[in-house]
Amino acid sequence: MRPIVVYDTNVLISGMIWGGVPYDCIALAQRNIVEAVTCTEILEEFSRKLTTKFNASPLQAAEMVAELLNFHQSVKITNQLQSVTADPDDDKIIECAIAGNATHIVTGDKRHLLPLGNYQGIFIVTAADLLAQFQ
């Protein structure tokens, strides 16, 4: 069984803009080595950060979202989960993982998500950690 992965926004941005290990980790989904799951809320945050923090045009952001949707399954979340009290924005990542039956959340969030280690059996790892499982 292939791992089912939710990529946090920070991993998507790093991979899609700068490449490196985050890109290699995302490429696992492009090559069908892992199954990628996302939700509208993650994609909206991704698009918003591209335009506000990285000066991408709305068209460029939309093209990157469309590219991600070529190899991500989209699930619906209810925005009801309140699990990460220190950063409620991270709740959508965990809720997406639950809705998509994910085995892994891939993140660079060292303050809120990575310290959890796992959530209800969903491993919370860095891009390098996930990549190492396939090398």
Distinctive features:
135 residues; alpha/beta; six-stranded mixed β-sheet; 6 helices; 45% helix; 16% strand; globular
The H-and-E topology, N to C, reads as EHHEHHEHEEEH
Mean pLDDT: 92
Main beta-sheet annotation: 6 strands, mixed
**Poorly predicted ranges (pLDDT <50, ≥5 residues)?**
none
Q: Helicity level, as a percent range?
A: 40-55%
**What is the radius of gyration computed over CA atoms, rounded to a whole number of angstroms?**
14 Å
Number of helices: 6
Choose one word for the global shape. Answer: globular
Strand content: 15-25%
- Quickly give the structural class: alpha/beta
**Terminal Cα separation, in Å?**
17 Å
Strand order of the largest sheet: 3-2-1-4-6-5
Topology, number of strands: 6
Task: Give the helices and strands, then pairings.
Layout (H helix, E strand, L loop, with lengths): L3 E4 L1 H9 L2 H11 L4 E5 H14 L4 H12 L2 E4 L15 H9 L4 E3 L11 E2 L2 E4 L1 H6 L3
Parallel strand pairs: 1-2, 1-4, 2-3, 4-6
Antiparallel strand pairs: 5-6
Helix pairs in contact: 1-2, 1-3, 3-4
Would you give an account of this structure?
The protein has helices at residues 9-17, 20-30, 40-53, 58-69, 91-99, 127-132, and strands spanning 4-7, 35-39, 72-75, 104-106, 118-119, 122-125. It is globular, with a radius of gyration of 14 Å. It is of the alpha/beta class and 135 residues long. Strand 5 (118-119) and strand 6 form a beta hairpin.
